[in-house]
């Protein structure tokens, strides 16, 4: 048994699951827990495990029906906690690890006892693996907690955290649909310090059918509720709330066009 467990929720995306698991470097000491959230078709466990070269095991657990990612994540958390892992890392189907991601994050958390969660810079690619953009996030706790009101300052598939914090903060909130990670990060920030590494350790697949696009309105509504639940009178909370309200009333086509123009401007 290794000290870190990688949690991957799965729903009807075996191709992406294989891609993610096979991206793990063979030199990594990592166990993997796949929680299937009531997929329509059975997972081919042999096909997934046959080319797993890391020094660890893969466990599969199955929910009886599709309960949603929040429930799948919490089910995985309960298993990880009961098995006494020290750290839990995250990855989503279709996203890939870069280099010795888990070793790097483990070493960082081992050396920084005051930090309980660490993420990284992230590449965003299309389904063919072509780079769309590179995301650099704040690395220091004081900047992360300020800017959290504008957007999540950790990309969920890039994080690793100390499982011991679950005793104090509990599991992923289930009342904020499509924004469970954003709410979870706020819970952590109320009690602990966090960080990001200034290294690209994960490539995330930009998916038109992903939660952020498929449930955009519901996600923004949840984000507004989270900001209000953690609100104080300051520049960042006020600006973040106004920003989210504008995004909520703005059509998706308009925001996508603005993002495209901004990315082109940054490249030039």
- Tally of DSSP β-strands: 9
Q: Report the principal-axis shape.
A: globular
The structural class is alpha/beta
Helical content (DSSP H or I, runs of 4+): 40-55%
| SSE succession | EHEHEHEEHEEHEHHEHHHH
* Mean pLDDT across residues: 92
Classify the beta-strand content into a percent band. Answer: 15-25%
Rg is: 18 Å
> Tally the helices: what do you get?
11
Largest sheet: 9 strands, mixed
- The low-confidence runs, each spanning 5 or more residues with pLDDT under 50, are none
- Please give the alpha-carbon distance between the first and last residues: 48 Å
What does this structure look like?
The chain is 41% helix and 21% strand. The protein is an alpha/beta fold and 268 residues long. The protein starts with a strand and ends with a helix.
Highlighted features:
single chain, 268 residues, alpha/beta, 11 helices, 41% helix, globular
Give a short synopsis of this structure:
With 268 residues, this protein is of the alpha/beta class. Helix content is 41%, strand content 21%.
Task: Give the arrangement of secondary structure elements.
Layout: E1 4-10, H1 14-22, E2 31-36, H2 45-49, E3 58-62, H3 69-82, E4 87-90, E5 96-97, H4 101-111, E6 115-125, E7 131-135, H5 141-147, E8 160-162, H6 166-169, H7 180-191, E9 193-205, H8 211-214, H9 216-229, H10 235-249, H11 252-267
Helix pairs in contact: 9-10
